[in-house]
Amino acid sequence: MPPAARRPRFRTTAPVLGLLALLAAAPACGGEPAPEPGTPAASPAAPSPVVASEESPFWVDPRSDAARQVAAWEAAGRNSDAQVLRRIADRPLTLWGPGDDPGPEIRRARAGARATGRTLLLAAYNIPYRDCGQHSAGGAPDARAYRSWIGAFADNIEDTKAVVVLEPDAIAHIIDGCTRPEHHAERYQLLSEAVDRLKKNRNTKVYLDAGNPAWIPNPMDLVDPLFKAGLARADGFALNVSNFQPDAAARAYGAKISKGTSGKHFVIDTSRNGDGPLPGDRAQAWCNPPGRALGTPPTDRTGDPLVDAYLWVKRPGESDGTCRGGPSAGTWWPDYALGLARRARD
Known about the structure:
Elements: E1 4-6, E2 17-18, E3 24-26, H1 65-75, H2 79-89, E4 95-96, H3 103-116, E5 120-124, E6 131-132, H4 143-157, E7 162-166, H5 170-175, H6 184-199, E8 204-209, H7 223-228, E9 236-239, H8 247-260, E10 265-269, E11 307-311, H9 334-342
């Protein structure tokens, strides 16, 4: 199944949340095994393979919702819109592993990545009690189920070059009080085990999610929780997943966390931060905010020695949830995608 929803990235209060389906959001997440993104208007033919530009080492999925939408619009004569949407379709997007069985989708993506000699981008989003019951609520029913799921997730990557963003929101939801105290120890244990399991794959890099500058104001509050979750054995941490904080703000925030973690590197989600966050209502700024734009295209050429890559973790065009007229979290929303692409500067 295609990627799922992505959850909210900024919270002003504590309790009350859930998860993404990893795949789902990512960034607005989708619960359960996250909701499946809607299928774009009938695609007349399978899109042709896409090869990433030389500026990016990451794999481009020729069967993403955006790619199929481009094919559908071209068939319908909407060539101008299709050309604009290629700003999403022709770029590397992170695959959120389906919450029921991640195997088939990861195998499909693995084959594509190997055929093109590119690196696979993945997000694991299925932790129990995900998103505290909100738009992306769901996740594995218990610790045993999660261990089985993350095992299948890792097994199907094999020795393919891959970057995995591990459990968006999971740590920040502990810090902000959303995840209930009785679940904290188990969550840290599961995250730590997940890092170890994924790192058994010799070509897999793992980045633990660490929220964003607007969510956990003091970056030092993340240091100890990140280490409890296995940061010492991971490649680093991830910032701004499914959020809209500017690159500069994320870099400055990440540099402080890096200093507190003895120099750990990080990746930044730049999928929708081209115009920064929505001014005004900060409590709802994370959910399908209008007027936003695509950010820096995915690349490992960041110009910052601490930033390993700019990634599109949240898949542009997937809804954050049923707010502002959007469909359920993780569902493909063509009009929103087109708006993000039209306002992009690159």
